[in-house]
Amino acid sequence: MAKKATLIIVIAMLMLAVAAAAQDRDLVWDRLDVELAVERDGDILISEDWQVTFSGGPFRFGFHSIGTSRLESISDVRVWADGRELAASYSEEPGTFETSTEDENFFIRWYFDQPVYDSTHSYQLQYTIHGGLRIYEGGDQLWWEVIRGQNRDFPIRSAAVSVHLPEGVNEVHKVDSYFTPTTWRSVGARTVMFQARDIPPGQPLEVRVQFPHGIVAAQPAAWQAQEDFVQQVSPLGSLAAIGLGVFIPLAALLGLYLLWYTRGRDQPSRLPVSYLSDPPAENPPAVVGTLLDEHADMRDIVATLVDLARRGVIRMYEEGESGFLGIGSRRDFVFELVDDSPSSRPYEKILLDHVFGRVRAGSRKKLTDLRNEFYTAIPELHGAMYREVVSLGYFPESPQRTRRIYAGLGLVGLVLAGALFFCAAPILAELTPWAFLPALGAGIAAGVLLVLSR
How far apart are CA 29 and CA 154, in angstroms? Predict the structure, then answer.
């Protein structure tokens, strides 16, 4: 049994090792040769020759992606694998290829005859680009993304790009490349050749060749007009976005300060005397407490109970109770209603109703009895205290209502800023990378209003 168990363990370990080796896959693009031939009708015939070395495996298919945001359509796709032309199909059968378009990407995917392990293979692709030239009065341009950085996680050792211009071109106005350093040279008046080496994963390569206008019979494509418009308005859009992103929070802060200064702050006044021996007015504690900090809170309710006891409306005392068999003791506070006639203020009547219920003189209530029920009366008492200070003319309206209005405006502002950020900013991002700043500024302004609403 021990030998059998050992054999099973060894076989399992070997299977895991084989599975791990199968998952260890890598590849290198040894060579990439691309030819771009501009036709007289404005089409671009593209031929690509790949040499790829695979490490590990298995590899079952290859694919190529082409951005479609700067062209009108792609046609006449052909694929060769190791010199053998593949048939177009959508069945994913070995030895075939298929094409698809998704999210401004044109995909070419071909399926190997058999899984590939640790070997070098060559692939050739041909296709025609329609509406891919830039047409301008000052000169037409071939501006093409030869190597895409998107979804490429392997290096390219060597790349050669040849641009062939149509008959009638006697000179090249401008030659340039972007994102990857290249060397280039002209071969005659109609051919430009680029060379690049050791292109790291994720790094793109674009080439640009400008030649005299009027040689190709093509009109500007719709995407060109849109891109030119974006390039024209992008500086103004960036300036406007940055300006609004800074202006909105600054204007909000200034506006809130002016609002506080003109309507929210306590007006400065001189004290008539430096010392008073008696209160300046006959206001009860709850009114004074609410007036001082503009908040009706629990200590104002407690102060009202004490004031009612001072005025003889209620009596408060502490009483003790012995424990079982005289062991231990328990003490509690007792409220006794003596005479409720002096309690003329609405919030005082509400307080007495919630402490003693509807039963009047002689009613008693222990503090422990109120522990689990009195909290329901607190919002009603606070509202009555706010109404009291308004009725006495200390506030034009309830401070609590004013705070809620400004807090509500702050929440609405945050919702609108969020809608602007998630809905409008992505659309405007084509015009400026700073499209999110106005939404961010509006969010900051709304957040400040929400904080200051108290």
Answer: 7
| Residues 84, 18: Cα–Cα separation, whole Å | 31
Partners of 322 in beta bridges = 329
If residue 448 lies in a helix (H) or strand (E), which one and from where to where? helix 437-452
| Residues 88 and 96: beta-carbon distance below 8 Å | yes
Which tokens sit at 238?
A: 């960036």
169-201 confidence digits (pLDDT tens) = 998 999 999 999 999 999 988 999 999 999 999
Task: Tell which residue, 412, 436, 414, has the closest CA to residue 423.
Answer: 436
Of 165, 90, 75, nearest in space to 127 by CA:
75
Please spell the DSSP secondary structure of 176-187, one letter per residue.
Answer: EEESS--EEEES
Letter string b/e over residues 391-401, b meaning 16 or more CB atoms within 10 A of that residue's CB: eeeebeebbbe
Q: What are the residues facing 55 on neighbouring strands?
A: 26
Give 87's Cβ-side CA count (13 Å radius). Answer: 8
Structure tokens at 359: 């039963």
Instruction: Please tell me the total number of residues recorded for the chain in this structure.
Output: 454
In whole angstroms, what is the distance from residue 252 CA to residue 266 CA? Answer: 21
pTM above threshold 0.90: no
The residues that bridge with 48 in the sheet, in sequence order, are: 34, 125
pLDDT per position as a tens digit, 417-428:
998 888 888 777
